[in-house]
Amino acid sequence: MSTLKIHNPATGQQIDERPADDAASVAAKAAAARAAQPAWAATALRERLAAIQRFRTGLVAELETLAATLTQEVGKPISQSRNEINGLLPRIDFFLAQTESAIADEAVFDDVGMSERIGHVPLGVVANISAWNYPYFVGCNVIVPALLTGNAVLYKPSEFATLSGLHITRLLHEAGVPEHVMQPLVGGGEIGGALLNQRIDGLFFTGSHATGVKIAQALAPRLVKLQLELGGKDPTYVRADADPKAAAESLADGAMYNTGQSCCSVERIYVHAAIHDAFVQHFVATVQGFKVGDPMAADTYIGAVTRAPQLAVLDAQVADAKAKGARLHMGGRRLPGPGNWYAPTVFTDVDHTMELMREESFGPVIGIQKVGSDNEAVALMNDTRYGLTAGVYTRDEAKARELLARVNAGSVYWNCCDRVSPRLPWSGHGDSGIGLTLSTHGIQTFTRPKAWHLRSP
Questions:
Q1: Which end of the chain is less crowded, N or C, counting CB atoms within 10 A of the terminal residue's CB?
Q2: Residue 289 CB neighbour total at 10 angstroms
Q3: Is 417 a catalytic residue?
């Protein structure tokens, strides 16, 4: 039997080894999920809700163990690991509170003996190929509503967050979700490929654009429901009337939190010339105050880069920016020692000829570009193939609404950034993906509508 070796990205040391799936075990698990799903769908909703409530209780009870595991396998600072698990709780609460009404039958017409209703039935077997940067958020955005709406789930956590994925699965089983209804798949890309070959009714993927395109191409002939949460190059504009210090402190956190490894991290900043220099001064000072160090230390803010190959991406973007005239204020290099470490990096004098301003960095690197007008800022914000999030910092709400209405993004922010709410749909434009999760729409996405035409005799 093959195994998956798990390493700590902060030290490079192997911390665990787990049996890996293969094509045969994936097929067996898919068949078992298919057989188990009808009974789960027939289980009373109150029982499914109770199971997820017990899962929530388990997360709280094991918070410290779960957070430590997450930090050890992805390099996320321990305080941010705790934040992720604690932040999952209100999302679960939202799903628990809203599922019954979201999937209730809807009466849309009733007249002269003819009744028309819309039902919401489970998709069936849902495949979830999840991400490593927020395994609890990203995984449970799919797993929890999928289970609550009566689906079986085949869950492949990222190979870089396998232990956290196995914790999620274990806690769900202990909470009362049947083993065959919620099944983990352990392994790398080849296991995701094997999963695509199974009879599934929905595929929910979070990851790179390149992999998302391959998944879409593989499933297109079978017309499987597809949700792809892909990358972003998320911009923010700081207007001339904004408070440069407050905006800088907020955006430094938005750019560097989780070591910049978030789909909605701030990746491009445009600042009006009138406050550009003051903003940059406060921004650099804020980032200089972020402690880089042992992810298990309580005061660490910048942890390790999870995937070693990403260091080369960051190196290339830094070299390209320097070669094209960008001004480096801090960082711009790998840090010494074992593990995957990159210094927080801030550039100004950047433009859109640079890879730094066009392609996803997914690391602690940011470019700040000076602009002369609102219209220039909006044009630059839209000069991208992505469209996940965008923001504007200004004292003028009406102007913020006007500008954000012109920006192509699934989520927009006024005087805030890097924020996700369970009450709002999470989606993107362009190469940032298709479909959505979260909100009541994100609950209904795990069902298909069934039209009922009912004529009384």
A1: C
A2: 10
A3: no
